[in-house]
Amino acid sequence: METFMRASLVATLTALAACAGTVQPAQGQAGTPAGEAEIDRIALLGCIKQYEPAPALQSYAQAAPDLSLWVGDNVYIDTQDNPEAIYQGYRDLAAQPGFEALRATGHHMATWDDHDYGDNDEDRTYRLKEDGKRAFTQFWGDAGVPANPADGIYSARVFETDGKRLQVIMLDVRWNRDAPDTGGDILGEAQWSWLEEQIRVPADLTLIVSGTQVLLPREAGSETWDNYEGAAERLFDTVRRSGKDGVLFITGDQHYGEVARRRGALDYDAIELQFAGVNQIESPELNPWRVSAVNTSTHSMALIDIQWEDDAENLAHLLYRIVNTQTGQTESIYRVNLEELDLDLPMTERTLFETRHAVELDSQYPGLDIRYTLDGSAPTRESALYESPIELTDTRTVRAAYFAPEGFRRSGDFMRRYEKADPVAALSPGRTSPGLSYAYWEGEFMAVPDFAGLGTPLTRGVSKDLDIEALQEREDHYAIRFTGFLTVPETGLYRLSTRSDDGTLVDIAGQRVVENDGSHSPRTRFGMVALEAGAHPIEIGYFEDHGGVTLDLAVERLGDNGQARKVAFDLSHRG
């Protein structure tokens, strides 16, 4: 695993002061992991006129990003005949207040667009492109190690962060770029082949970075992937054919920031976070795919904050913000839940059935086919095509995947096991009386306790209606264990539920059926079990933390169609 060390600013300035054309490009391996790194905040930077004030750089440094992505036009060279102007542009950027502090903070990756490539709207024919590449690799050091130095400056890295993998792919949209609207290409075949390999590298989130905007129609009048017929569709198809989820586009060029979203372009939505206005601003062009506000400040900062895991309050997500660094005001904000970047296949949730079961696969993507197996094997393009609910009459594992109409696999597997219920045998409890026996303990509990370890209960008795208020001997902090028999009138599949405040657990014949544990306000949880007609041992564990008290038990009979009907049931105890 390679460790990417930051180049010192002093070394950078010294190299740039040397004669242009004498420095060889650095060598590096694309896609090499960058090692363990806490990547929770990403900065986007681009379109920096190095000869004008750029106070936002100091704000970026203060924001302490874990990773800074320099998306292009990082300096404005704009020359056709002066290689020294390229080096001078980088020297001027390095001298900007805040740049040194930012460069010393976190990881960095860089690509270019036209102005730091060399001149406005330049393409593969630009005569100083080799000079520009030498200056780029000298200045950016570890942040700009080309995967193929003979073919431009594209690169990729994978960062391991808290058990998650972040992949960043920096495209070069200048080195091989043909003239727009001529039927040419934007990447070149060597870079396309490299991208096809990179996009298959496993990652939880993949950022594809382009100096030119992807989700902008050519009618806008600016440079865009749409100026290259089929290029954007080829990019989308490259992602689709890889079977990869979790792909997001980062782009620059326009002197403002926005979010664009094209429904279903990757089968899931293609989402683009665009920003290029560290010290520039212009009025936005018409973009029919725009889904966010556009910033209006000249000195702006764009940040992406990532929450990698779900918690009690939020799904895993990224939050994209553009801030006016002069006022501190957030001018644009957009949230993407990470699950929005994944293909999903909802399957019938009920997994236990009595005699027959119809399993539905709820496709969210009309352009994809679903193929499935019932024997546990991985689906292939020859597997059964899902067209209607799958009828099961015995225990089976349904394993399904999305396939494109062309036949290539588009997703991983979605699996669920459906079990034909084997009813729990009833028993003959002997002479019984109505109600459940109970035992009562006091203590500060946060979950239903292990009653066997609590010692002698404070009180014992019989409860005919599970009335907690009638049994409690103080307002809070106690636990009750109910035991006895549940008698049901017919053999079949049953759904049991508790509505409780605080936690409850329900076991039938030693099998956990309902789990409604923890300290909480009144809530309902369900569980299923197949039972023979007759009596079955039941245990209900309950505890009260603080606040209100509630305990209700419901028993319903489930049919093969999933419909539930209430049935009469008895609770009893021996004696």
Which secondary structure elements does this structure contain, and how are they paired or packed?
Elements lengths: L8 H9 L15 E4 L4 E5 L10 H8 L3 E4 L12 H12 L4 H5 L3 E4 L3 H4 L11 H12 L14 E7 L2 E7 L18 H10 L6 E6 L20 H12 L4 E5 L5 E10 L1 E8 L24 E8 L9 E8 L5 E8 L14 E2 L3 E3 L9 E5 L10 E2 L4 E3 L3 E8 L10 E7 L11 E3 L1 E7 L16 E5 L4 H4 L6 E11 L3 E10 L2 E5 L2 E6 L6 E9 L2 E11 L5 E9 L5 E3 L3 E5 L1
Parallel strand pairs: 1-5, 2-3, 3-4, 6-7, 7-8, 8-10, 14-20
Antiparallel strand pairs: 2-11, 5-6, 9-10, 11-12, 12-13, 15-18, 16-17, 16-19, 19-20, 21-32, 22-23, 22-24, 24-29, 24-32, 25-28, 25-30, 26-27, 26-29, 30-31
Helix pairs in contact: 1-3, 1-6, 3-6
What would the CATH topology of the largest domain be? Purple Acid Phosphatase, chain A, domain 2
Gap from first CA to last CA: 70 Å
Counted by DSSP, the helix tally is: 9
Q: What's the name of the CATH homologous superfamily of the largest domain?
A: Alkaline phosphatase D (PhoD)
Estimate percent helicity. Answer: 10-25%
Tell the overall outline. Answer: elongated
Whole-number total of structural domains: 3
Largest sheet: 8 strands, antiparallel
Give the strand tally: 32
Regions with pLDDT < 50 over 5+ consecutive residues?
1-33
Radius of gyration: 32 Å
Please name the CATH architecture of the largest domain: 4-Layer Sandwich
Strand content: 25-35%
CATH class of the largest domain: Alpha Beta
Supply the helix-strand structural class. Answer: mainly beta
Mean pLDDT across every amino acid position: 93
